[in-house]
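Risk register update: the risk of archive-format incompatibility is retired. Evidence:
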Amino acid sequence: MNPAPLRALARMVPAATVLLVVTSCTDASPSSSSKPVSPQTSTAPAATTPFTTSGRTTAMNIRLTIDGHRIDATLNDSATARDFAAQLPLALSLRDFNQTEKTADLPRRLSTSGAPEGSDPKAGDLAYYAPWGTLATYYRDAPYATGLIPIGQMTDGGGTEQLAGAGEISVEAAP
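Archived output:
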């Protein structure tokens, strides 16, 4: 018998076991929704607002539209935020998670290069939850979460109130 396939299987079993344990410990996974939600991408042209000006790296201003209300936000200067900005504009369906945040599936996973191990989100924060590949928008403070990468923050304080009851969000580069 060839031992190579057995060694490969032995390397995969621990990872599969961890995945099963993590997903069985919570009923809040993306698949626990009563109906599947898929991202809806806009047909508008891609964002052109750069992260660099005159050789300096800067944050990027974006605009969220929630139930017809425009909310200003800023993306930080991280690889994950730049990768998110490259996908703009987006129109996304939101799901409530733990009565604290709204999550949305993204068209593709984002870069996590140089990202922190996790973060302690506050109301108004925008983040990428790497384990699920989702955008997380917070309308309440939440405890530290491993795999949560901050990508920006709403600059309009009223945005969190709009977000709490929202079912859809559009995100675009600010003019």
